[in-house]
Amino acid sequence: MTMTAIVLAALLPVIPQPSEWKPAEGECDLASAKVSVKIDADAGLGEEGYTMDIAPGAVDIVAGGATGRVWAGRTLSQLKAAGAKAQCGAIRDVPKYRVRGFVMDVGRMYHSMDFLRDLARTMSYYKLNTLHIHLNDNEICKQADADWSTKYAAFRMECETYPELTAKDGHYTKKEFRDFMLWCRLIGVTVVPEFDVPAHSLAFTRVRPEFASHKYGEDHFDLDRSEEILAWLKPLFAEYLTGENPTFIGPYMHVGTDEYNKSESEKFRAFTDAMLRMVAGFGYRPCAWGALSHAKGETPVIAGRDITMDIWHNPFYQPEEALKAGYSIVSVPDGAVYIVPFAGYYYDYLNCRMLYENWEPRNIAGYTVPDDRMDQLAGGKFALWNDLLGKKKDGTPYTEADNWDRIHPALQTLSQKMWSGARADQGWKEFAELANSLKEPAGVKSTHTRLLKAE
Q: What angle, rounded to 10 degrees, do the helices at 113-125 and 400-420 form?
């Protein structure tokens, strides 16, 4: 019998399915089994990989690092949730992609810390390891007819440098956000905070109106004043990235830098370069939304493997150009993995079957990352954007529960695709039935109602 045939005969009640699963005779009573865990950095498993031998009376785990130990625990938790006994056998589980994430827009709609903790706990349950939190943004509008004084904007962090920045309708204290990041680290999830500039910046220009562009809209910085603006931004970033116990514990900081008018390409490129260098100068690894194909020009922008470009829309930054420049990239193709609740564009609910059957991070809107560039492809993310500011088109509010209902099925589906990529051993019907059968992680106040359709 081939390995594929063995696996097809004995799927585990686990998402994501392990990289390798070799069933054996017998069952293990998980309630009484002795569980042993060893970390072995020389086991060839990497930081996130692990092996698990399930035998009558014993479960023996070897993890490549502390995160692998967490993931082994999640597998064991799912097995226990599925029943008192588990099929004996051997698991070897190593992720194909090192970044497996989700982007949560809290800038346009505040979400409670309880929501973020439930989100991170569920991500960890499914071995998603990157939570990118978009901390400032504003209402979308066109410059031609905009009365900017009426447009919504928010910056979601407590701020001592510029106290008037802090949103009054919902924000996070520095202590609670730092504590959240530290707790996430313990459960295998890295939080990537984002302050988005020089577009999406109405929260900042409300405080410093002289920095607003009257040509492109007051949610844009006036890049003719870049030197002044950068001097103003540096102490703001320093507030969260410096000190004995910085609020943002690292290692990543996202600076946005997307969707600026391309007629200002050279100024935009210079501004992007300055922001990336600023963050690197604080000892963090910078991340940005890829925009350097849209903003073509001669002005150099710092590049390197320690800088990550999120490839979200290929015309803004063609992935092959980003790879050639030397960046690490993350695949976030807007036409496949963007949720915008109730908007009528992008997706209200992701097409999970299409994603399961046809997508993995190396497939970026028609471009396939070649084998010799896979070391630069960090992984993938999906995203939820609150463009409507938490209100449906009829003006009635939507809630955290509405968003959770959209996130959850996508989270289950994409955890599989970002862990293993394409698999020939499990069809959509089997996966959907498995996903719908799994119990929630302990402590999560789940509100989702949307089930994956098996047919």
A: 30
